Amino acid sequence: MSMNRRDFLKVTAGTSGGLVLSLSLPGCAGIPTGYDEHSGNWKPDAWLELTADDRIYFTLARVEMGQGTYTGLTTLIAEELGVPPASIQPRFAPAATEYRNPLYNLQLTGGSTSLATSWQPLRVAGASARIMLVSAAASVWEVSPDDCSVAGGRVLPPNGGDSLSYGRLVELAAKQPVPEDPALKPRKEWKYIGKNRGRLDAEAKSTGAPIYGIDVELEGMVYAVVTRPPRHGARVRTFDDSDVRKMPGVLDVFEIERGVAVVADKYWQARKAQNALTVEWDESEALSVSSEQVFSSYHKAADEDPGESERSQGDFDGAVGSAERVVEASYEQPYLAHATLEPMNATAWYRDGAIEVWAPTQAPDLGRIAAARVTDLSPDDVTIHTTFLGGGFGRRLTNDYIEEASAVAFRVRKPVKLIWSREEDTRHDLYRPAMLHRMKASVSGGQVTGWHHQIVGPQILDWYVRNAAPAQYPWAPKFLYDTLGRVGLMAEGIATPKDHSAIEGAIEYPYLVPNLDIRHTHTDPGVPVSWWRSVGFSHNGFAVETFMDELASELGQDPYQFRRSLIDHEPRHLEVLDRAARLARWGEPVPEGRARGIALFRSFGTYVAQVVEASVKAGEIRVHQVVCAVDCGQVVNPDIVRDQIEGGVIFGLTAALYGDITFKDGQVQQSNFHDYPLMRHDQRPEVVVEIVDSNQAPTGVGEPGVPPVIPALGNALFALTGQRQRRLPLKAQV
Asked: Region (Disordered): which ranges (predicted)?
């Protein structure tokens, strides 16, 4: 269409509406486009909104829990729109099918997938918007769009002249056709992607401005706490609330599915009343295992069941039969808590036949199912307001805290904030599974000829499918929720994706060994488990890279050169391995009393090699330096990559040195940071990160820093002491 300048000014002068640009993004079919000429209000199923007063809003479909989506994904839009990222205002997406993660068919943030899955569609969104705006301006100037350009939120005409702001163009741009295959800006023209430009949320977080779940305040809000059974699987038999109800501020005491709720005017009133509550539990179906029994059952299962073959190559049994020697080792890893600094919490408000929930959740569509499950509402009656998250690490993929808050709110008919104490958060977590690994390798002629890895432990999907399956079919009646979960498990690997949580990082074994036999023996002692930062890569990384170190020692070879000799067919592995060794000055002397260890691991598509320098003094392990080389494909914000790798290193070292959730008679023995400690500032090592400059598609960085640092530290301790540690956490004295 064509419109002269005078007509354009008539149309756009004084308008207050906005163009909602919602484009044909993969996995987002059905989002309407349109211009609201009356109010310009944002439509909740839109990705991008440009208003007549030159504001730009971006609907962020992946939550921000410190990993940088708020900045990184906004940068993709900004690059193609030709505006500084800081000029765009991100807003968290509501729970809606349009915002599902295409890898999981669920609206969740996890698996280091946010950037990888958004890289193409969000750039297409920004590019399409830019093209429509340019076409609108070109029609005003009666010139070719190819002769126009954009800068700083304005369209520039050819040969100088007055430019037009995006805000003045929105109404006319809405009438332009949506490009089917918009050309994206070439790499050489990028102004924001690949640059260190800080974080968009840094200033706000430094001043306490962002609202986390625990910060939510509503008029007339009351507080709730829940007394849960000390052993998983126990149920309330009876409870005595006669004294509790007389205490100041107490509004109600009642049973919910997960325990007994106490509601009061203030949080500390509720907590104090909880301490006066007496509950008798029915423990007939309660968990009763000890940590020793868990590992005993794992070894028994491994003896009796060789497990399902997950990867087979060559003839491992034949390699063992003809081997000069066979090397064997077993590795054990304990249960681990998530220990997010913001404990579990949610605020819920039931009114007018619907419920609103404000929560720090990694999976808002599962939150809708959680709220519907414990009320008489359907998922369509549930609105989830996602807040900033004070840590996630996979814990907030499970919405048990939303279930509790919703059940309480449904009864009290007031806005209710439910908060878990640190002790409750530690003792009622869904843990990183305890795992057993049995390794065997055949050696002949100074070469590794065969590799066997038997992984023993549970699958996380068994525990997660409860709400995940209904979330994929939100139209299903609630009486089918549990059936959908059972069907999902039965169809795993057939009609539903295979659960790789136990085997990931093991089946991708990269070293050039001709005969491979990798198996999983599925056994579950009944301890609740869930995703934990880097999931199966965390425990398989320790087993694989520690055993590789053992083989190097067995063959009398340098651990770095040994790996290098088996990886030269994998150029990206080789690149990070060489870089890490060079950065750490591998082969040069270390200060007296110290030693180095090395590990190499690929997780979530990202290649990471790390060298740890450590010492043992006065009965304490001290990590002095961790050098990391990282290939995560195209980098959007190098500072965030470094931050995330460094954070992963600290997280992994915390697990390696202190992480140990133990059970006695079914009860968790740890409760707070005094007996489940985190690495403190004065204990943190120097972390050096070097990023490979790559034009490959971007991969994740939130988790890949975790898996290699644990075996690298263990390997350093072996180099220092000559004693191999095969059970975590690592000890100063074995």
From this structure: 297-317
Residues 413 and 507 in one domain: no
* Helices (H) then strands (E): counts for the chain: 18, 28
Backbone angles phi, psi at 307, to 5 degrees: 90, 170
Both tokens assigned to 406:
């919703």
What is the residue range of 248's domain?
Answer: 214-284+344-419
Q: Where a domain ends, among 419, 444, 471?
A: 419
Residues 247 and 301 in one domain: no
Give the separation between CA 481 and CA 465, rounded to whole angstroms.
Answer: 10
Phi, psi torsion values for 647, nearest 5 degrees: -60, -40
Supply the DSSP symbol for 500.
Answer: -
Q: At 381, which helix (H) or strand (E)?
A: none
Quick one: pLDDT at residue 176? 85
Nearest residue to 369 (alpha-carbon basis) of 347, 344, 392, 402: 402
Of 419, 448, 479, which residue constitutes the final position of a domain?
419
**pLDDT per position as a tens digit, 477-505:** 888 888 888 887 777 766 667 899 999 99
709 in the same domain as 572: yes
Domains in the chain, number: 3
**Hey, what are 548's tokens?**
């590789």
- Inform me whether the pLDDT recorded for 434 exceeds 80: yes
Going by C-alpha positions, the residue among 595, 626, 628 that lies closest to residue 612 is: 626
pLDDT, tens only, 319-367: 999 999 999 999 999 999 999 999 999 999 999 999 999 999 999 999 9
Q: How confident is the model at residue 23 (pLDDT cuts 50, 70, 90)?
A: very low
Q: With respect to residue 467, please indicate whether it lies within any of the assigned structural domains.
A: no
Write the pLDDT tens digit of every residue in 180-189: 899 999 999 9
Give Cα separations from 424 to 133, 208, 228, 271, 468 (angstroms): 53, 26, 8, 12, 24
Region 155-177: mean pLDDT is: 88
Strands 594-603 and 515-522 turn out to be: unpaired
Same domain? For 247 and 331 the reply is no
Q: Are residues 33 and 150 in the same domain?
A: yes
Per-residue CA distances from 255 to 12, 238, 400, 404 (Å):
59, 9, 16, 11
Q: Which residues of 108-145 are buried (b: 16+ CB within 10 A; e: fewer)?
A: bbbbbbbbbbbbebbbbbbbbbbbbbbbbbbbbbeeeb
Residue 495's pLDDT is: 62
Q: How far is CA 645 from the centre of its chain?
A: 14
Phi, psi (degrees; rounded to nearest 5) at 109: -115, 115
Is residue 196 domain-shared with residue 237, that is, in the same domain? no
Strands 345-351 and 354-359: antiparallel
CATH of the domain at 510: 3.30.365.10
Q: What is the DSSP letter of 329?
A: E
